[in-house]
Amino acid sequence: MTAHDKNSTIRRAIRASMSVTSDTARINPDTTWSAIDELNRQTWAQQLFAAAHRFGISQSQVEADSPDLVEVHVRAHGSDVWQRADANSLIAALDSVRVAVKPREPPHAPAPLPHDVAWRLPDGTSWASALQQWTPALKAATYAALRQRGNRFRDTLVQAFLRERISGAKHLKMWATTLTGSIMQPYWHLDDAPLARWILKARFDICPTEHFVRSYYRRLDDDFRRACYCCGRIRTSTPDVFWPETLPHVVLFCAHQCQTRLREKFRADLQRLSTHPDVAKVLAQVGSPTAPDFNDNNDLFTVFQLCTGVGPAVSALQAEPLLGAANNNADATILREWPQYLRNNMRAKLAVAWMRPLFDDWLAISRDPRRPELPQQSPGYCLALLVARHVRSIFSARSSILSTQPLAAAFKRRDRDSQAPQPQPPPQAAAAAQPAPPNSQNTGSLVPAQGSLIDAASRETNAQAAFSSPPES
Ligand SMILES: [Zn+2]
């Protein structure tokens, strides 16, 4: 930014490009000549105006070659108070001087002086020298200001994308409610990359559930017909109606004894972690937020997803259908069409408020080599590791269950796709197709009763005798 710089080849080239850029292109640099077959007509200067516009730098600042990104602070000799300086400020030889990132808008609102984004200059540096000499301090402050503005612009795109996912498309809808902005998620710092990928699958809802697999391969359009094969019917009295195998179903509701056992172990492990003294020590620094209730499905699923947010700050977008029409007494065919799990955003926020300090502490240890602690021993790391191992274990168990005969054969044929009763079976088969004995645990409950693999397979055999279903192509 010295006088010599202003006569450099690049500066003269920009000035030449500006001289041939129309007023229209200066005022609307993003939309002028923006069609795919007109892009070659954009000047270099127009593209500079467009880039600067995204960073919140005005047209006049670009034309004047003086982006208003940083400011100068002065502290009188012997004083503890920093004050903003301007062109008229008198700076004595012993005064301290620093250059800092300009605070966020609104520009006319009184804003506190930034402390952690300022770089010191030699004492007595004049205001003009501070802004015109391309010192390491000015360079660092300018880069920090641009990075801050760039992140802000990127975040507006991220917020729009998250809102679009939540309000419209189903793909990545669940993921969009697990974060609030564009930040690197802490679980990527796990030492074990395959475990981190399990967390990613859980957050993206691409774990190998019937819901994901059969929608991904476009094999069954109706969500509610993607039945879980690990647990039994919703009602023993209603044949061939099962819970859809969604991610929340596997994590919270699946009644297979293996999944139930893993779920209880997960709750106990989380409870043990939450009462560890190291956790209390970290949380005490932020006011000791209340630990989630791990027996509550809402809290458990929020922790399971390692949410660092609850989606963009537009709560109306996250409105889910009310469960009023579905209740414990509803018909099984109605129950399976309603979401088995609906998130309570208020509770989710509380669970996030408990997790975030643990993650922040973990990342702070990872990023600061002066911290004596090991990241692997931080509570945030332990929490992510616990969740990752749980995701892997429940899908490992699912795979094992579905590869054991006779359920494996029924699963391979996708017997539960059958919907309409088939022609009457011969008497012998009809005798074998007597309804399963009533299961008191199932009646009137949204959660299917726990059943063993043998029980489930037995019911499958009966159902197959009564309803023949063609194998899925
Ligand atoms: Zn199930």
Describe what you observe in this structure.
The protein is mainly alpha-helical and 473 residues long. The chain has three domains: 3-63, no CATH class; 70-144, no CATH class; 169-464, no CATH class. It is built from 20 helices and four strands. The chain has helices spanning 3-6, 9-19, 23-27, 44-54, 59-63, 127-132, 136-167, 173-176, 193-204, 210-216, 247-253, 257-274, 277-284, 297-304, 332-335, 345-367, 379-402, 407-413, 427-432, 453-466, and strands spanning 70-75, 83-84, 96-101, 118-121. A four-stranded antiparallel sheet has the order 2-1-3-4. It is elongated and about 85 Å long. Bound molecules: zinc ion. The site of zinc ion (ZN) has 7 residues, from loops.
Features:
disordered C terminus; mainly alpha; 473 residues; 4 strands; 4-stranded antiparallel β-sheet; 4% strand
How helical, in percent, are the residues? 40-55%
Largest sheet: 4 strands, antiparallel
Strand order of the largest sheet: 2-1-3-4
Rg from alpha-carbon coordinates: 31 Å
Unreliable stretches (pLDDT < 50, length at least 5) are 321-325, 420-473
What best-fitting shape do the alpha-carbon axes yield? elongated
| Count of domains | 3
> Kindly, what is the distance between the CA atoms of the first and last residues, rounded to a whole number of angstroms?
69 Å
Judged by helices, strands and strand pairing, the structural class is mainly alpha
| Residue fraction in strands | under 5%
Mean pLDDT: 80
Bound small molecules, which ones? zinc ion
Number of strands: 4
Number of helices: 20
| Strand/helix succession | HHHHHEEEEHHHHHHHHHHHHHHH
